[in-house]
Design brief:
192 residues, alpha+beta, 6-stranded mixed sheet, 34% strand
Length: 192
């Protein structure tokens, strides 16, 4: 007797019939990939763009200028040095209605330290910062806020003020070239 072994080949998924029509790839992964790239580009522009960087730097300056309590001379010197880092060498400071208060970085830093020593509290409530770029390499930042200046005796001056900072891109990065202050905000009808 002879035994024969039979083998059967069974295909679970038979191949599709061959045709001359090219096979299409699904478009969903490609569309999702392009969408992710587009969103990443928009985020990078919004977060890393010149106006966004100037807006963040302006917010840091607002926090730097605020004074909540007494400070040591060392802390005052460090804050003055930080402020000087944001200023261009020929930066100017103007108070609307009074004229020019300081003509360069050194004078602005000296005025900053004198003002900080004169007041016990300097605070800004809910500052609103808006930026626009009128020309390439230049960004204007406008800050509007309620301010409160109180001396050691507790006597305080309050109002709504505004500052406009003109930032210019130079070889050392973005620096303030001109700052203009208003003690009453003209956008709110000049009302304190």
């Amino acid at each position: 007797k002879t035994s024969q072994i039979y083998t059967f080949r069974m295909r679970i998924n038979p191949p599709p019939p061959k045709t001359n029509v090219p096979r299409r790839r699904p478009r969903v992964p490609t569309t999702i990939g392009l969408t992710v790239i587009l969103l990443a580009g928009l985020w990078a522009t919004a977060y890393l763009g010149a106006e966004a960087r100037v807006r963040r730097a302006t917010a840091q300056i607002v926090r730097l200028v605020e004074k909540k309590a007494d400070e040591s001379p060392v802390a005052l010197g460090l804050d003055a040095h930080r402020l000087g880092g944001y200023l261009g060498a020929s930066a100017g400071l103007t108070l609307e209605g009074w004229g020019q208060l300081a003509a360069n970085r050194q004078e602005i830093v000296q005025l900053f330290t004198q003002t900080r020593q004169s007041f016990a509290v300097i605070s800004f409530a809910q500052p609103v910062i808006a930026t626009d770029g009128p020309r390439p390499g230049e960004v204007r930042a406008r800050v509007s806020a309620r301010y409160r200046l109180a001396d050691a005796s507790g006597e305080a001056v309050e109002g709504r003020g505004r500052a406009e900072l003109r930032w210019v891109k130079g070889p050392n990065g973005w620096r303030i070239e001109q700052a203009t202050l208003w003690t009453s905000d003209p956008e709110f009808g000049g009302q304190p």
